[in-house]
C-alpha cells in the first residue's frame, strides 16, 4: 500500500532525523511531501521553487518509489520474487537491464565486504520472521537455520548467461549455482531509490532538495543560504544523538537494531542477519555512514551493514574495506565509536555523550 500526503512543514524522526530549524514559519519557500513505501516513511523536501513546480517534481519521485517497491519486493509478487522462485527450483530467469545492473553492483559490493553485505540470504531473513509487516517474538527452528547456514548462499553463486553489463532496453538471463540463494535487496533498495530520486529531480531542474527514505538521506544543493542539516537518531531515546550539515551530493545512512526487531525475554533480535551464523548481529545499537559521489545513495544503504555485523571490534576494518572515511558505531553500552573525519562534522546534542575516535 502506498499513501502520501503533502505537508509544507512536516518533520519526522526515523533512523536519521531531518533537523530543519525553520524560521519565519509559513514563509519559507519549502515544499515537503511524505509517503509510506519500502515499509517505511519517506519524505521529499524541495527548497526555493514555487509550489506547483515542486509538487509536480515530487509527485514523479513518489511514483518512482512505488515502481521500485513493486519491482523489488522480496516476498510479495514482484520481479525479484519471481526470480527467487526460479532459483529455488534450480532454474534461471529473465530480468530487466535495470535489475541486471543492480545485481551486478550488489555482487561487487558483497565481494568488497567479504560477504558481510549479502542480499542472497533472504531465506534467513524470512526464517527469522522479518518478511512480514509485524514481527512475532519467536525464535526459528534450529535445524532449518543450520541447514541454511551450511548451504552458504552468497552473491557469488549468481551468474549471468551474457555480459552482466546491460544493454539499453534489454535485460538478460540470470541463474544461481545454489538453490538456497533467495534475494532480498532490503539493504540496497532504499539507497538505489535515493539516487533515482536525485536524478529525477535534477532532470526537472530542481536545484535544492532533501530526500529521506526511512533514515537514508541525500542532499541536493542547499537549504537557502545554508546547508541542509540532519540529525542522527539516538537508538535508545527520542530525538537525535548528533546533528551535522549535509552538503550537495552527500548521503547519510543508518542501520539500527531499533526499528525492525523483536524481543524474546530480555534479548533483542533485529533484522540485520550475520550471514556467517545466520543469526541477528548482537552488541551494536546503530551504525551511521556518510557517503559521497555518483552512487552516494546506494553506498549509504549497503555499506553500513558490514560495519554493523562486524561489531565494535571489527567495524573499523570493515569501513576501510568499503572505502568509508566517515562512519560511526554505537555499541550496546551506548559508546559512540567514530572516525576522526566524521567527528569533525558532528555536533552532539548532549555534552555527556561518550565518544571514542578510532584511527
Task: Provide a brief overview of the structure.
The chain is built from 9 helices and 21 strands. By secondary structure, the chain is α+β, with helices and mostly antiparallel strands.
Task: Show the helix and strand layout.
Blueprint: E1 3-6, E2 16-18, E3 30-37, E4 40-47, H1 51-72, H2 79-88, E5 93-95, H3 97-112, H4 122-127, H5 142-151, E6 158-160, E7 172-176, H6 189-203, E8 209-213, E9 216-220, E10 228-233, E11 240-246, E12 251-256, E13 261-264, E14 267-270, E15 273-274, E16 279-280, E17 284-291, H7 296-302, H8 304-321, E18 327-331, E19 336-338, H9 340-343, E20 347-348, E21 355-357
Parallel strand pairs: 19-21
Antiparallel strand pairs: 1-3, 2-10, 3-4, 4-8, 5-7, 6-7, 8-9, 9-12, 10-11, 11-20, 12-17, 13-14, 15-16, 17-18, 18-19
Helix pairs in contact: 1-6, 6-7
What does this protein look like?
With 359 residues, the chain is α+β, with helices and mostly antiparallel strands. It has a domain at 79-186: T-fold. Helix content is 30%, strand content 27%. The chain is built from nine helices and 21 strands. It has helices at residues 51-72, 79-88, 97-112, 122-127, 142-151, 189-203, 296-302, 304-321, 340-343; strands spanning 3-6, 16-18, 30-37, 40-47, 93-95, 158-160, 172-176, 209-213, 216-220, 228-233, 240-246, 251-256, 261-264, 267-270, 273-274, 279-280, 284-291, 327-331, 336-338, 347-348, 355-357. The strands form five sheets. It has a ten-stranded mixed sheet with strand order 1-3-4-8-9-12-17-18-19-21. Strands 2-10-11-20 form a four-stranded antiparallel sheet, with no helix packed on it. Strand 13 and strand 14 form a beta hairpin. Helix 1 packs antiparallel against helix 6 (189-203). The longest helix is centred in the first third of the chain and has 22 residues, at 51-72. The termini are far apart. 47% of the residues are buried. Mean pLDDT is 91; it is low at 1-26.
